[in-house]
Amino acid sequence: MIVRRIVILNPKGGSGKTTIATNLAAYYANEGRLSALMDYDSQGSSTRWLSKRPRSAAQIHGIDTGENRAGLTRSFVMRVPPGIERVIVDTPAAFQKHELVEFTRNADKIVIPVLASDIDIHAAARTIADLLLVAKISRHENRLAVVANRVKSNTIVFRSLMRFLESLEIPVAAVLRDTQNYIRTAERGLGLHELPSARVAKDLIQWKRLVDWLERHEKVSQYPRTKIPDPVSDYSSSQSLPNAVVKLPWSEGPLESSL
Ligand SMILES: Nc1ncnc2c1ncn2[C@@H]1O[C@H](COP(=O)(O)OP(=O)(O)OP(=O)(O)O)[C@@H](O)[C@H]1O
Ligand SMILES: [Mg+2]
């Protein structure tokens, strides 16, 4: 049985790491995959979510590393019980660069949730640069993707985020809208896939794109290397953007900038 490790990472606080990690664990559990949720955050948000989970819900194995982040790679292997097929790793806000290497070393997929704001775009640029240069994640391994989170679509800052991501040639695995559904399910230890489907129909379409990417194994051909742009000076939302057509990977057609 192949264990796939999916690491949700962004040192920027509040970007949606725990939300994506818990929802993913719930998704896989409902798909009948034995899943573990590994909480590397000393705040223990994923662990708390798991503790609220109803007994009747599909089972998820919790692995709480607490404060002890030493020897991550070793503990990663040691702590995953036999039979587990998907390990979802929730990581803390703010960590050392050497921990970035540890978090990502054995990861099959690395998901970076990014909020559409200038500050978050700037922080994401740094994280992506560290992943490429420090953790030596290569684009053509197809291990790395961004999830644009809490998106109010068609806003200027959203377009600015998408343009920035396009320039990095990092895939955008999903765009998740801003909805109370995440907040309500989190309170109950549930995932979106465990709500009545009529209520979350729009969200499930967005999630399908993410899980499709996560379950894709093929590598992509090598992209030409580009410089990591400065998102604020190069893509600031306050700048007036030229009339542009942004080809979005999840949309039916190009999105016309109406600026
Ligand atoms: N798509 C969304 N729509 C609405 N609310 C969301 C969405 N994603 C996350 N949130 C809310 O935003 C807040 C922060 O999300 P979350 O805790 O997942 O971020 P985090 O990156 O894990 O934060 P930290 O860095 O503190 O661990 C939470 O209250 C969560 O419910
Ligand atoms: Mg968190």
Notes on the protein architecture:
By secondary structure, this protein is of the alpha/beta class. The protein has one domain: Rossmann fold. Helix content is 38%, strand content 17%. The strands form two sheets. Strands 3-2-4-1-5-6-7 form a seven-stranded parallel beta sheet, with helices on both faces. A two-stranded antiparallel ribbon has the order 8-9. Strand 2, helix 2 and strand 3 form a beta-alpha-beta unit. The longest helix has 18 residues. The N and C termini lie far apart (51 Å). The C terminus is likely disordered. The protein binds adenosine-5'-triphosphate and magnesium ion.
How many strands, which pairing sense, and closed or not: the largest β-sheet?
7 strands, parallel
Number of strands: 9
Kindly report the CATH topology. Answer: Rossmann fold
Q: Could you say how many structural domains there are in total?
A: 1
Concise account of the structure shown:
The protein is α/β, with parallel strands linked by helices. It contains nine helices and nine strands. The protein has helices spanning 17-30, 45-52, 72-79, 97-105, 118-133, 156-168, 180-187, 197-214, 231-235; strands spanning 4-8, 35-39, 60-64, 86-90, 109-115, 144-151, 172-177, 245-246, 255-256.
